[in-house]
Amino acid sequence: MAAEAETTPLPKIVVPAPPPAPGGGKGLGDMPMRVVYRTIAAATAVAAVGVAGFVVLRGGDDDASAPSAVAAHTAVASPPVGTPGVSAATTGDPAATPAMTPAVTPGAASPAASPVVSSGSVTATPSTGAATVTAVMQAALSDPRIPALPEGDRRLGRLYGRAAPSRGALKDDRSGVAFPRFAKVWKLASASPFATRQMLPKVKGTNFRGLLVSCPVPIPVQASPRDTAFLAARWTLNHHPSGATIAWTASQPITVSDRDGWLLGFTVNYTIKGKKRKAMAALALVDVPKDKPALVFMTIPDTQKKHWRDINTVMSHIRVL
Predict the structure, then answer these.
(1) What domains can you pick out in the chain, each with its CATH number?
(2) Segment 8-31, tens digit of pLDDT
(3) pTM exceeds 0.90
(4) Which residues contact 268 (CB under 8 A, 6 or more apart)?
(5) Transmembrane stretches, by residue range (predicted)?
(6) Which of 308, 302, 106, 310 is closest to 206 using CA atoms?
(7) Alpha carbon separation from 306 to 185, 199, 259, 269, 276 (Å, rounded)
(8) CA distance 238 to 61
(9) pLDDT in tens, 155-206
């Protein structure tokens, strides 16, 4: 029998362990999975922030729907708001806006977006070309004692009474006009502060009586005779009882010695000692070759109403010197 050959055991193969990481730390494979996931999530968040910052710096040109991008674009591209009628956004030249104010958000009120009204004045901008309404005219239009003039022309009618006799004309060299000088009842009186003055006798129980005066118009001259006459009518309230108000009876253009003018007729309503009274009044504004137009003003209370016709006499017989 042949002997069994001696078997030699196979050598044991041993795989050497990988060298430790530098510094003695553990490798990625040795980290728990939850740590790995947290690390990846943090890296992703940092990358997203970097992309968003890039979009904002681009000013929203690549993605106009992004709210942050739109806000950044608006802050950079919106031009300042200037004076009304002039905009750097429309002219393309920010220097075309004389006064600059910060841009405002939609829906917010902007002081520079509407005309400024100071002391009742309304000033047209050069771009509109509209007429200017002066401060004094605006104040008169807002005065509750005097209504706006009627639309169109309204002629002065024939007033009650009988015309007083006159003797020649009273010449007012200072104002540049002449008009009837009444005889008998009407008397010349001290003119100051007017240029001329005629008056009816005093009425018992009141200091108010018939008055006829002339002078250069004592208020600022406006662009049109109609407006200047309107202001003059308001001024006449200084020569009526306190609290008086005006109601128009006439408003018409007139021609005096080939010079333009305007005539206003009106009643003046007031109260004396608790009793309602009124006066009939009229004024003529006449353009004369002087610095200011001439004003002829006449008022007669209802206690002397039989002289109201004298208003027709004066207003129809004014002439330029």
Answers:
(1) 31-69 (no CATH), 166-320 (3.40.1000.10)
(2) 555 555 555 555 555 444 454 555
(3) no
(4) 236, 237, 240, 244, 245, 246, 278, 279, 280, 281, 299
(5) 35-57
(6) 302
(7) 12, 14, 32, 18, 18
(8) 69
(9) 999 999 999 999 999 999 999 999 999 998 999 999 999 999 999 999 988 8
